[in-house]
Amino acid sequence: MSINLKYILKRNKIDMEAFFLKNQIENYEQLCEHCKNVDIIPITKVEYDLLVKKEEKPKEVKIEKPKQRKKSTRASSKTQTRQKRRSSSKKVNNT
Q1: Which of 27, 55, 65, 92 has its CA 20 to 30 A from that of 37?
Q2: Does residue 19 lie within any of the structural domains?
Q3: CB 9 within 8 A of CB 16
Q4: pLDDT tens, 62-95?
Q5: Which of 6, 49, 53, 3 is nearest to 28 (CA)?
């Protein structure tokens, strides 16, 4: 009984790129051959082409904006002083 490749990748928490690198797959024919040997239903040629096109796109360089300081949520930015605690209510018996 054959199992779908997408199911196996999802179950093993691995993406297609990592699967291709691990199994040294460079084209769709190699993918089909590997799946045939392991008794797995491969993805379609259309899905493979979409994945390959995504990988080949050059990554755009993002221009980072300078980070703005986070605004204070308190009404005043002064450091708060520690409040005094209640004195203990235990009485010491000196006999």
Answers
A1: 55
A2: yes
A3: yes
A4: 777 777 777 666 555 556 677 777 776 766 676 6
A5: 49
Mean predicted confidence (pLDDT) in 44-63: 76
Query: Which segments of the chain are extended strands (E)?
Result: 3-4, 40-41
Over residues 33-60, mean pLDDT: 82
CA 81 to CA 95: how far, in whole Å?
39
What pTM value is reported for the model? 0.54
Number of domains in the chain: 1
By DSSP bridging, strand 40-41 and strand 3-4 are: parallel
Q: Answer whether residue 40 is part of any domain.
A: yes
Torsion, CA 18, CA 22, CA 23, CA 24, rounded to 10: 90
> How many angstroms separate the Cα of 17 from the Cα of each of 14, 63, 66?
8, 27, 33
